[in-house]
Here is the input.
Amino acid sequence: MSTNPDASGRLPDAFLRPGSSSFVEFLDAHAPELLPGRRLAAGTGAVTTTADLAPHATTIVALTFGTSQGGRGVVLAGDRRATMGSMIASREIEKVFAADEYSAVGIAGSAGIAVEIVRLFQLELEHYEKIEGSLLSLDGKANRLATMIRGNLPMALQGLAVVPLFGGYDLDQQIGRIFSFDVTGGRYEERDHHSVGSGSVFARGALKKLWRAGLDADGAVSVAVEALYDAADDDSATAGPDTVRRIWPVVGTVTADGYRRVDDDSLAAVVGRIVAERSEGNLHA
Here is the structure.
């Protein structure tokens, strides 16, 4: 959709008419070809079928922490590897993003489309806040993301699926909450912890063993990193911490104070402790 003014210097009428607080609905009405799910292969008029050539992102974990006395929130974490078939496409891809001040989203699936959907989702939430003058509820954010994933279904049927994991701090209930999705846009609220991506079956096993009620933020970050460590041990598409290149997972926490990305120095200390504990355990085995 062109944003260039006409000869009179005015923006197109579509930009000046009152309408929905949803930017995605606006785009769907005036330039649907720009939506991620409507992408066409250049010059062919057909949906692209190069799923095997597109980098894929895995694995994402999420878990809640805190007690009724306070310190509640959610942690999202993702490894840094993207694969393209049997090859490593990237060792430093970022899969966890702040959606807005009080929520975060992690991506698994076709990396390029997933990142584009995340950027559009961020714009959707910002647009809503500017139009309505208030934040969308956490349930509302999850519903908007589900609608966007449903819009990508034509691409998913071609093998270019996107499966996000969404979490945030609910300002009304004052707790951290987690939502998972399927490729049709189905939305499911998860309890305590969840994981998506190729290494999720191994990460979920670790989360079941390590998560406990009353974890503080630091404890939850440690559990998230250890779950990714376990996933990388059994899933070739999931990367473990790279101590040589100093590439650590992307880990973010969301609390009443907002989204915060955990810094690399803190993650290096967490990884060092996990490696030391496991090395000591092997020596005494």
About this structure: The longest strand covers residues 70-78. DSSP finds seven helices and 13 strands in the chain. The helical segments are 23-30, 111-132, 138-151, 153-156, 200-210, 217-234, 264-283.
